[in-house]
Amino acid sequence: MDKTIRNFAIGLALLIILAPLGLLAVGETFGEWGSGELKEKLGYVPSGLEGLSSFWRAPIPDYALPGDESQTGTVAAYILSAAIGVVVCGGALYLIGKKVAKD
Amino acid sequence: MHIPDGYLGPYTYIAMWIIMIPVWYYAGKKLSTELKSKQVPLLALAAAFSFVIMMFNIPVPGGSTGHAVGAAIIGIVLGPWAAVIAISVALVLQALMFGDGGVTTIAANCFNMAAVMPFSAYYVYRLISKNSEVASYRRVIAAAIAGYISLTLAAAFTGFEFGIQPLLHQSATGVPLYMPYSLGVTLPAMLLEHAFGFSIIEALVTALIFAYIQKTDTSILYGEESRIKIKKDPRANTA
To answer: Which residues of chain B does A83 touch, with a Cβ-Cβ cutoff of 8 Å?
Structure first.
């Protein structure tokens, strides 16, 4: 059990480092267009969509630090985001789990 | 597959919150009664894994990009209810911190990726596994098919939620207010790019991790211990 967990954790660390490979895929995701892309496609931005689209401002939008668009900056921000995700998700579940787990 | 704010109108996103709140509540209750301390590190790893695997964007022909979710293997290993919690935490963080997926649409995204996926994956895996040996090759195939079907199904749900928007919400002159494309566009778009792309990746990821667990420690698999207990106590089977 412990060895398996350790190896999973190593695998996860590798995934964090390799995460920037995910940046290589350039393109638009269906149903995740920004207002600009929608305007280009349709000639207008649906009004309800436009209103709701600014519902939330994420601090690290699209796993990138706003303002830094250099390649190194993008890669570093992507790795940092992956690390934040792993620490926060793993940490949250670990704490919740410890609290509720039996035996 | 992460639906941003604005693509679903209030009828749909509110309905999804109404569906998901009891699902989360029940999943939480189930977790607190069934989780054993030795599973805690695995649960934490699962949420973290799901978060990271979704960052691996993959291009498909046609210019779209997407990713695996990891929900199938999590559903198989931890059981579907624990998977609901683990993947939901990842999705909530993605929405709040990174703007990947909307906030109004958190429940919809959790429904598609954190509920439909682990449940369909788990039951497909069980159905195909039947009573085969835990270490059998059949189980690897079962895991792969579970990964493939579960992500394709989640894509179908997402496509459906997108596609009903023009029917539910339009201006007085008939202009769509939210997702502008109808079912005839959204369903095939979501289904095709997943069935011929991302679902294959999900199948590979699921089978690979499953085969690794087979070789190392099958005792971490959900249900492998309780199935022995069921034989002794038939009442335990109701879950």
So the answer is: none
- Smallest CA-to-CA distance from B62 within B215, B152, B196, B239 is with B196
- Tens-digit pLDDT string for chain B (239 aa): 999 999 999 999 999 999 999 999 999 999 999 999 989 999 999 999 999 999 999 998 877 899 999 999 999 999 999 999 999 999 999 999 999 999 999 999 999 999 999 999 999 999 999 999 999 999 999 999 999 999 999 999 999 999 999 999 999 999 999 999 999 999 999 999 999 999 999 999 999 999 999 999 898 999 876 444 444 455 555 44
Which of A89, A33, A91 lies closest to A62 in space, CA to CA? A33
Phi, psi torsion values for B174, nearest 5 degrees: 90, 15
CB under 8 Å to A103, separation ≥6 — which residues?
B36, B37
- Tell whether the torsion through CA atoms of B82, B87, B89 and B92 is positive or negative: negative
Confirm whether B26 is domain-assigned.
yes
CATH number for the domain spanning B136: value is: 1.10.1760.20
Residues 55-84, chain A, touching B (beta carbon < 8 A) = 55-63, 78, 81-82, 84
Residue B105 belongs to what domain range? 10-238
- Domains contained in chain B, number: 1
pTM of the model as a whole: 0.93
